[in-house]
Amino acid sequence: MLTAPTTPVRQASVRAHNLALVLHTVANGADRPSRAAVAAATGLTRATVSALVDDLVAGGLLVEVAPPPRTGAGRPAVGLALTSTGPAGLGLEINVDYLAACVVDLTGTVRHRYVEHADQRPADPERSLAALGGLAARARGAAEADGLTVTGAALAVPGLVTDGLVRVAPNLGWQDVDAVAALRAVPELADLPVTVDNEANLAALGELGATGGNPTFLYVSGEVGIGAGLVLSGELYRGVRGWSGEIGHVTVYPDGRPCRCGARGCLEQYAGQEALEHDVPLAAAALGIALSVVVNLLDVPVIVLGGAYVPVFAALREGIGVELRRRVLTAGLAPVELRSAELGADAAMRGAADTVLRVVREDPAAWLRRGA
Ligand SMILES: [Zn+2]
What we know:
Low-confidence stretches: none
Domain HTH marR-type: 21-67
Mean pLDDT: 92
Distance between the termini: 36 Å
Keywords: Kinase, Transferase
Helix content: 40-55%
Oligomer: single chain
Shape: globular
Bound molecules: zinc ion
Protein name: Sugar kinase
GO molecular function: kinase activity
Radius of gyration: 23 Å
Order of helices and strands: HHHEEEEEHEEEEHEHEEEHHHEHEHH
Number of helices: 12
Family: Belongs to the ROK (NagC/XylR) family.
């Protein structure tokens, strides 16, 4: 027979839920809300909110700050804000021509950023990951010298990932690489939880964090390869096995250029970074053809172009638009919105760092227990 959880267990889980709710309200609600404003927004009593806020302040997740300028009568209340000295996420990226690491604090500010430009293709995975581990260790050291506590690391890779294993990253020449184990072998990272995910997925999450709201969009990441992350009503859609978004291998010209994947005429061969440098109008047309397939199939209203597409966005926009207007059945009814990524080249590692901070945001009780 099933029994209800015992009272202390239930109370602990209610408290954990309410801590997350208060933290979320301060992060996403009005500017520097007072305790009373948090109570009003959450529906919790003022006494409950006050006790939770005390715990979050004592635990180093919230700080009390001057309130925003007064608009009404009465005594100005103390405002609340996320701390910039508490937990931090370490975002890492390995791509064909660079390695990167950044540290992001709970307010979403990038506090440290290291980028090393070097072609990773001739190197074996062990060497690339050892070099990245060195950058990551430097970033963590700098963050901790600033009083931040790095709670985890997440790595963005241009490939297919399952259960922490990079199954295949065609443009790096990687197959079945245990990137998590390699990073945790770096002594300065050995105690950190480390995760790995596809770079376009993480960039889409980075873009979602930067723009907020509950949007639906396709994020297209232009690197040497091309990946995409599909965000549906604020949630990343990964596909059944986590392999969705391989738009780089959508066929745009069936008898076209051979691709590294073994097929012909893939989008990547016309609109990947190297092709883009040679012929922007051809890249725009190829992107427009591939994106029209996505829009016709999924009714995605917004397409965000990131990575190498950001600096040439103005030049791409018209050419992509021509193809979308020509090929999307509903283009005359509702034009597809095309925009350039907010975060530019840093989107994937920012998104990676955000997945670490999301763990803290969703379960602040765990962070408070750790600090105790
Ligand atoms: Zn291909």
